[in-house]
Amino acid sequence: MRMRFIVALILGAAALIAGAFIAGRATAPITITPSNTSSEAGFARDMQRHHLQAVEMSLIVRDLTDDESVRMLAYDIATTQQQQAGQMYAWLNLWGLPQASSEPSMTWMTRPTLDGAAHGHGDNGDASAHEPGSPMPGLATPEQLAELQSLTGVEAEKFFLELMIAHHRGGIEMAEAVLDRSENDIVTSLAAGMAAAQQSEIDLMEGMLAERE
């Protein structure tokens, strides 16, 4: 039921964003539509999945704690990342591209940057970390999600904060990777905003975690 709720919210957000996006296209600068195997399309697909897990973890912890600061943080993360996932879903529709990729996840992060370098500043300089089909940066494992669901109170809060800090760091890495590979203003604007916002939340969560140690 939780995943159905998440998907419904994302589809609703996508419809609203698509309408607003279409309305503004007449005055928008002309850009080249990304291809099915472009960095923009790969980012939109993979970051949707990455965001969905952040939403899932946030909804989980809200049921496990009464701490208002953690519940407010979880709510902010869930609503922001639902909206952004909907926005990326809408991009693919507007570009006429399928939501499912024709190649393994993370393939786009193994491709050269705009300046021809093998890696960008968001790639940690390590190609092996982004082998196509490998886990996305910062993604929690099924075992970690199960452990989070088994906890309550402060222990749940601490584990959630640890998981979300790692998750946000991975999200920043992906955002910086597409910034190194794209000149699409719509994509780079969202990616830059994501990186800045998630770094701010990391700083906040590190402080919250320190208070609970």
Structure notes:
The chain has helices at 2-23, 39-62, 68-94, 142-150, 153-179, 185-211. It has one domain: Ferritin (Up-down Bundle), CATH 1.20.1260.10. It is built from six helices and no strands. It is an all-alpha fold.
Topology diagram in text:
Elements: H1 2-23, H2 39-62, H3 68-94, H4 142-150, H5 153-179, H6 185-211
Helix pairs in contact: 1-3, 2-3, 2-5, 4-5, 5-6
The biggest beta sheet, please? none
CATH homologous superfamily identity: Ferritin, core subunit, four-helix bundle
Uncertain segments are none
CA gyration radius, whole angstroms = 17 Å
Outline: elongated
Please state the structural category.
mainly alpha
Specify the helix fraction band.
55-70%
Would you count the extended β strands for me?
0
Instruction: Return the average pLDDT rounded to an integer.
Output: 88
As for the CATH topology, it is: Ferritin
In a nutshell, what does this entry contain?
The protein has 213 residues and is mainly α. 64% of the residues lie in helices and 0% in strands.
Key traits:
mainly alpha; elongated
